[in-house]
Amino acid sequence: MSTSLRFIHCGDLHLGSPFEDIMITDERWKRIIGKAPVRAFQKIVQAAIDKQVHAVLIAGDVYTSATHNLTAQLDYVRLLHKLGQHGIQVFAVHGNHDPLDAWKAKIPLPPNVHVFSAEQVERIPLLIDGEERAEIYGRSYAHSEERDNLAREYIRREDDHYAIGLMHTQVGGENSTYAPCTLNGLKDSGMDYWALGHVHTPQVLQEKPWIVYCGSPQGLDCTETGVHGCYYAEVGPYGTTSLQFIDTSIVRWESISVPIDTIESVSEIREAVRLAKEKIRKEIGRPTFLTVNFTGSGSMYKVINNDEAVQYWIDSWREEEQGKYAFVMVERVRNMARPKINQEERSKLPDMVGDYLNVSDKIDGLPQEEKLQMLREILEKRPEFERLGTYGRHISDDRLLEAFEKAKWLGMQRLLEDRRG
Q: Domain Calcineurin-like phosphoesterase: where (predicted)?
């Protein structure tokens, strides 16, 4: 290539996805937060215009088809037209949330947009000033599940200038339903740059060749903490590539840990959270939804197990944010702490509490796989299990281990209270 190539790699836009169960104290922010994914994509479009890129690559999941959100699709097409007005080409694949067989309105896309077929990998030249400067390879999902390793079909041609593979996939997920592939398989294709979608956290898996997850432009819930955005790439005359991450999120989701080891009063708890909120406000400087995790062991363990007290704190913390532009809204409080007790010594006593701790210690001491198997068997034997439905059958290993850890200490606390009663 004799001149540079500039493009933006984005994906997992999830336009129209609602933020569920969020308490907003300010009406103006209800309007903004409600369209945060669209506003994040607007930032991408503006960045593409400002940087005068030649192309925007969209790696799947433009919207969430289950919501059938017509407004989101209209917003999407409007922004694609805006890119076209500035001579910017758009290349897009569909993923598991917006497969080609999903419902979508019959809204024609502008001529600057190419959506890749679901039948086979297509190779589309990227023209700059009438000259072919790069080649984009891509294939969309036909259905919400794609069990085939699509990466095997991406094969660079010898006469390619700069080959880009655009794919929605789960790298390393052998039994995944999201076009599973391997890192070695991506390297063997000969692509210069893999523009991947599906994982919502930005990740550069490798630099030679570039294998990149762009992440999502906007975190959608409390599990998607940290920065979100897209990658801006510049390719030099000899194929050297440099990447710049662009933060496009309108709202941030964050999580903090508040150790209770040295906290002895409710006022100290509230002050610790207040200081943490101010630190986040200073560092992030934009609306933030916050999860507070109480950790450690201390005398306040029983207090933070009181649902009424915790809800009172949450309400008061939210009231403090009224009218603030860069609010830090406490959305969740999780008790990951332990009672202030010498577990080893307490387990030696010949009573119900001691027996309880000895049983939980035995489970804790099992190899990880055996421990998870036992916990799942215990869960499935409970009469309440069927009421959990799909959630119960698909609960993650991490969530199961977390539930066990919390239940162990809560159960011990309840037994101690019963004895005292």
A: 5-202
